[in-house]
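lol forgot to send this yesterday, sorry. struct tokens for the thing we talked abt
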């Protein structure tokens, strides 16, 4: 896989991918696959995090959402949809970018390991994990997404 250096036009590409035959095939496989999904290579998740952090737009969305979540823990504000301070644009950007990346890399509609990647990206921005290739990131991946990730690829 690769870190996408140029993500310009990703929204338009997402629309094209969603309207293409590959999108329907991926979702049909997800729904009708009795054997379960193949594991996603660890390299795809690492590259996803690097791509998120390499671009101002996605980095800002991560920071905006993280700032809101820190100020509004679930026990004090359980419904972000009814909170006028919730950064809806950042949440939508994050979701759309996640969908684009899953489709672009052929990972399909399996968001769990990518949500782990989002968590690691936020921890890197907060200086809780030094970088995506660190042992701390590896430990976090193994602890939270080991059933979804192929650690040998």
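and heres what i got for the seq, position by position
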């Amino acid at each position: 896989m690769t870190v996408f250096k140029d993500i310009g036009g990703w929204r338009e590409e997402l629309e094209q991918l969603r309207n293409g035959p590959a999108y329907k095939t991926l979702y049909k496989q997800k729904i009708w696959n009795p054997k379960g999904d193949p594991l996603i290579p660890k390299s795809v998740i690492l590259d996803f995090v690097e791509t998120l952090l390499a671009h101002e737009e996605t980095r800002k969305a991560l920071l905006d959402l993280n700032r809101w979540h820190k100020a509004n823990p679930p026990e004090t504000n359980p419904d972000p949809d009814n909170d006028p301070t919730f950064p809806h644009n950042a949440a939508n950007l994050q979701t759309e970018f996640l969908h684009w990346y899953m489709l672009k890399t052929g990972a399909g509609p399996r968001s769990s390991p990518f949500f782990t990647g989002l968590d690691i990206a936020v921890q890197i921005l907060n200086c809780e994990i030094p970088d995506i290739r660190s042992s701390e990131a590896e430990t976090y991946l193994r602890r939270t997404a080991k059933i979804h990730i192929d650690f040998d690829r």
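The longest strand covers residues 40-41. anyway ping me if u want another try
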